[in-house]
Amino acid sequence: MTFQARTGAKITGAPGTLTTRLADDLRKAIASGQYPPGSRLPSEAQLTEAHGVSRTVVREAIAALRADRLVEARQGAGVFVLEADAPGPTPLFLKSIDHDRVSSMIELLELRTAVEVEAAGLAALRRSPAQEEVIFERHYAVRACLEASLPTSEADFALHLAIAEATNNPRFREFLAMIGKNVIPRAALRNDDPETDQAAYIKLLLQEHQDIVTAISNGDEEGARAAMRRHLRGSQGRYRALLREQRKPV
Fold first, then answer.
1. Which one of 42, 108, 151, 245 counts the least CB within 10 Å of its CB?
2. How far apart are CA 117 and CA 122, in angstroms?
3. pLDDT tens string 216-237
4. Which residue has the higher pLDDT, 198 or 53?
5. ∠ CA 214-60-201, rounded to 5°
6. What angle do CA 233, 23, 227 make, to 5 degrees?
């Protein structure tokens, strides 16, 4: 039986719908045992061909599965199915969080996605050498905070501001500055809790930042948009998973 026959017909529809439908198809395949725990999912190229969707759709669908702790990506090896109820490599540990506050943050992340995806694309096209250097410096500052066990939220916010600045359209920076550093979810939700229990999670964010920064540096407009979209939609998925976890009956 061919891969396409096992996974279903090609998917058609709007980009957001394509991502949702592909993610749902893969969830069903995992739940049915087609892809048992420990097995590797088909490659990005195979999924693209089998379902008739773009690589961006495939990446976002996989990001949704990762947010739900169904799969994990292993460097150079592929994407693998996790054991049922596995804790996953990047869980969120947020204590005493009000559901309404998390829901509000998800709404803000949706708004940021609409703005910052375009900002990343424009930054790839318009950044000056000096602005590109600042973006790299801000990215390295987040890593330095993590390595020194210091809070990363302010450095994270500074990176997003630097990308907005590199659009050379002041309205993008004004938008983020208006919201302030609470645009970073963990800054808005953690209060004074330390970040030391979030090292794995922040390392994932660093990799997502690296993809964005690299695409901007390469002048890859669509790649920068796709990387920023994965980053912000991945955050949405992680906080939605947190809400689901907190709502489970004890």
1. 245
2. 9
3. 999 999 889 988 988 898 888 8
4. 53
5. 70
6. 35
* DSSP bridge pairs for 40: 80
Q: How far apart are CA 198 and CA 156, in angstroms?
A: 14
Pick the CATH number of 3-81 from 3.90.660.10, 1.20.1530.20, 3.90.79.10, 1.10.10.10: 1.10.10.10
Summarised one tens digit per residue, pLDDT across range 235-247 is 888 778 777 766 5
Contact residues for 107 (Cβ-Cβ < 8 A; gap 6+)? none
- Show me where the domains of the chain are located: 3-81, 99-247
Least confident of 12-21, 46-55, 133-142, 235-244: 12-21
Radius of gyration of the chain (CA): 18
Query: Which tokens in the block code for residue 160?
Result: 């997003």
Element (H, E) at 35: none
Q: Check: CB of residue 122 under 8 Å from CB of residue 167.
A: yes
Percent of the residues in the chain that have a pLDDT greater than 70, as a whole number: 78
- Count of C-beta atoms within a 10 Å radius of residue 212: 28
In whole angstroms, what is the distance from residue 64 CA to residue 158 CA?
Answer: 26
As beta bridge partners, residue 71 has 81
Whether the Cβ atoms of residue 213 and residue 134 lie closer than 8 Å to each other: no
Residues 124, 220: contact at Cβ < 8 Å? yes
Comparing C-alpha atoms, which of 96, 102, 162 is closest to residue 131? Answer: 162
- The DSSP annotation for 78-144 comes to EEEEPPTT---SS-----S--HHHHHHHHHHHHHHHHHHHHHHHHHHHH--HHHHHHHHHHHHHHHH
